[in-house]
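Bit of a strange request maybe. I'm writing a small parser for structure token strings and I need a real example to test against, not something I typed by hand. Could someone generate the tokens for this chain?
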Amino acid sequence: MKRIQVIDDEAFICKTLKEGLTDIGYEVKTSLTGENGLRKIESFKPLIVFLDMRLERVNGIDLIERIKKIDEDIEVVIMTAFGDIETAVKAIKNGAFDYINKPLDLEEINLIIAKALKSIEVKRKLNSYVKEKKLKDEAIIGNNPVMKEVFEKINIIAKNDVTVLIRGQTGTGKEMVANSIHKKSNRRDSSMLSINCGALPKELVESELFGFEKNAFTGAFKRKKGLLEIADGGTVLLDEIGELSYDTQTKLLRVLETRKFKRIGGVDDIEVDIRIIAATNKNLEKAIENNEFREDLFYRLNVVPIKIPSLKDRGGDVLILAKYFLNKYNKKFGKEIKGFDDEVKDKLLNYHWPGNVRELKNVIERITILHDTPFINLNHLPLEINKPLGEKTKDNEVKVSINESFSLEKEVEKLEKKYIKIALDKCNNNYSKSASLLGISRFALKRRIEKYF
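Reply from user aminoacidic:
Good idea to test on real output. This should exercise your parser:
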């Protein structure tokens, strides 16, 4: 619920506002004095404070600065029976969001609340800009059957607010899958914030996730909200979650169970409405066996798992992605490269792509920057991809040895069998796609399968 606090020395106003705002759907607390109000703000943590201009012992304008020291994101609305331009300007210069004249009108108050909540949301997005991953509309594309299953899962998961564990090698597109889930979900209008759990020391991971109170440790000069709190209403991606320390895993488990946590150095629970998506390239089952990862946390995260295949296992998707990236970088760099020579296509299909989609993307970007040519040919490929025939690759190894028992016909048959097997594996035994990959007709492929297998 959206929390609102009223500070006014007139009991009738406090009672009236509490009843009216509670009926609308807000959680409201009231205070008759400034000091009592400040103490309640510390524990209640309201989003908006309606503050009387002339309290009995303190001026409302002086109180604004003290409220902002507790939490600079709180929006303060001044209430005054002495409404004038000078008072309004002074209040706003001191940090007030707006002011309202007494006698109060509930409809006008509700409009001010709506504007204040919108302001809070905008500031949160601005404050979290550095952390938020701006993946924009980068497409997740492919025709491989395994990837089609991933697409179907994304569409189903997005509609259901469940925790997701995305698994796959580095560079396969785990973050893009998380972004796609968020963009298709009911939380799409809120932020998706991301933290790489393996890129920060343990102490910084916890402060980034949970935030900290003023003076919680040396250098904590003021309260800092954590990622989980900033993302309230949205999505948090915990990338490389397998790198979290055991202690932090324990704290995260409580968040998953209760959606509550404490800031570092804090005593009060903070409740948030967030969706958590975790991603990892690590074998978590093995990490559990080695006492490096909590088993109970694994099952909390693994509500709905998504496994992203490596690029070498996606068959013809390599060429689809290569063409996609070529079109993208043609536009970006003002080039007009039309496509790839057939020899280049063969090299792209048979390379093992240890860096997965990210490596392919970088290769196409580099070629597009460096070359002006109608078609990309073998001379444009990096050496690791453009290996001579007979040199070892990860998918297959060609060994040439000629002796008295050598038979060219048998060696050709062996080679044909090997490449047919590779094509069938890449295309999940789809004859049409395998034939296209091999550059022969479906009938020719079927005839060879009947001959060799």
